[in-house]
Amino acid sequence: MNLRAPVTLLDVAQRAGVSVATASRVLNGGDRVPRPELQERVRAAAAELGYTPNAQAQALAKSSTNVVGILVHDIEDPYFAAIANGVMRAADERHLLVMMASTFRDADREIAYLSSLRAQRARAAVMIGSRRTDAEQLARTATEIEAFLGSGAGLALVSQAGMPAHTIEPDNRAGAAELARALVGQGLRKFGILAGPDALATARDRRDGFVAGLAETGLEPVAVRAGEFTRDGGHAAALELLDNKLDLDCLFAVNDVMAVGAMSALRERGVDVPGQLSVAGFDDIATLRDVWPGLTTVRLPLEQMGRRALELAIEGGEPRTETFPAEVVLRESTPQR
């Protein structure tokens, strides 16, 4: 079999009658731009020979690639998927290539992925997750973030305040407090909270915001149960509350997937929603369109948050935090009583 050898930069330089360095500056980019006539000769030679520029060589010449990395805690979670979709749409509009990795909420994996993107000279990255509360993990993550930014790349984080980079932050506390006040306004009084893991600041902020909203009306929760930040976590926590035979008229889950799990648990036990027990969540994920009764929740502009994160990562500059407001959406799962 007669395989044609790939065309090299040397071949292009010889055809154009220029040095390899000049050919590289024309085709791969660089600080020193050759004269227009030389650029024309090099590009004509490359076209005649069918030369394709080497992406790694371009990265070395330009100090970065056109790659944007997305690091997400759990791509199966509709909350994270919606934000990632916003990042990807904004990247596509800028003709940037997206590489995405799921960290499965593992801090070491997140740090390793960010380090890998730095080694590959990524132009920017967006980290989407729920901020942890472990001081040692936070310190190691901050160190890698500083190294990543020091390489000249851009970075923005979503729901991970306190890091030395641009941050998009949903107003979790205010949204949860507003929800609590709205539910009390519907006549609900006896609340159980499906709180999520205390190690995740997002879960803790929503729990604390809801408790604060209740306190403004002179109430406090009947029970608070921690659980995984997942559908199964909400299912298990709801069953635990039912087994304890507590006197409740509403369950508040700190995210929608937990709320969906709780509703499934209630159906299994023959508890009517909302006839016997109301349920509310947080996020307003797209999959709620298929849930009945419609879930009362707190809406966040998830795709817009992702878009803005990409914009900030590309813009660079001094770190800034932008907060996105939350909006209570009352649906059939919490009727007026």
Descriptive account of the structure:
The structure is a single chain. This protein is an alpha/beta fold. The chain has 3 domains: 54 residues, lambda repressor-like DNA-binding domains (434 Repressor (Amino-terminal Domain), Orthogonal Bundle); 126 residues, Response regulator (Rossmann fold), CATH 3.40.50.2300; 129 residues, Rossmann fold, CATH 3.40.50. Helices cover 46% and strands 15% of the residues. It has a 6-stranded parallel beta sheet with strand order 2-1-3-4-5-11, sandwiched between helices. It has a 4-stranded parallel beta sheet with strand order 7-6-8-9. The protein has a two-stranded antiparallel ribbon with strand order 10-12. Helix 9 links the parallel strand 6 and strand 7. It is elongated and about 85 Å long. The mean pLDDT is 89.
Keywords for this entry:
alpha/beta; single chain; 434 Repressor (Amino-terminal Domain); six-stranded parallel sheet; Rossmann fold; four-stranded parallel sheet
